[in-house]
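Quarterly update, task 2.4: nicotinamide-adenine-dinucleotide-bound model.
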Amino acid sequence: MSARIIDGKAIAQKVLEEARAGAARLRERGIEPGLAVVLVGEDPASQVYVRNKVLKAAEAGILSFEHRLSTTTSEADVLALIDELNRRDDVHGILVQLPLPRHIDEQKIIEAIRYDKDVDGFHALNAGALQQGRPALVACTPWGCLRLLKETLGNLDGKHAVVVGRSNIVGKPMAALLLRENCAVTIVHSRVPDAAALARQADIVVAAVGRPRLVDAHWIKPGATVIDVGINRIEENGKSRLVGDVDFEQVKNIAAAITPVPGGVGPMTIACLMQNTVSAATAQHAIY
Ligand code: NAD
């Protein structure tokens, strides 16, 4: 049996269309949704991410405001910019591209963003609201993973999900979202001795580890659905290539459905960012 390949690009396009429709509805009411993107430093991967976000914003009919700051910008200057963006009525969402240079405290910057403009969903108020099952701006990557699962499986009620990884930006919010969908949720991480044995019991496995192809055939129950969040650049046969946290070639013969890397979770993250920006603008103008 070969698994169904979950087409993240196609589903992301659908999410982007929804964001565009939402943005158009706001514009009919005289509101131009706006997203500020802040990049500090010259990290090449971050530059690519920022460029893609600005392009997708244009596609969704969202105005973007780019703020590119030099690597040596002080924490105080970044905080001053956040303060200005927090106050601007034309900015509904603020995204600070991570990682930040070492001399800047990431958590301090995230907490300085007005929680209702925190379209990355990293602010403690949004993370806490999600844990409590209250309305929140949800972190884009796990939000995108949930959408992929719902498009693939429909109702997730009662399914057993294992989330591999417990980071604040993927693993923990992913587990909270799955719980909200009435799954039985297990989180495994680097300190769990036999994580594979737990994952092997799951109907759904979401891998967010940052270890190339860690999740191989031994981790997967026949017929499970597998979402691969990992983006790892490796050198193989003299070539540089991107691979996930899942051993795609092995797991595709066991799982019922699997996301590829690239073309799975990646495109969903940006599309969900656009959806969050529209949601933020809608909430800020109290339109429900
Ligand atoms: P992280 O380093 O913050 O967390 C990794 C987690 O994996 C930790 O909780 C750790 O305990 C766990 N882990 C490590 N080794 C393990 C093992 N052997 N068994 C079980 N668990 C183990 O990483 P992150 O920020 O959550 O990112 C994870 C991956 O997802 C990375 O490859 C990252 O590039 C990718 N990512 C992709 C997107 C996207 O848009 N597709 C977004 C965010 C992150």
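Highlight for this quarter: Residues 84 and 248 are 45 Å apart (CA to CA).
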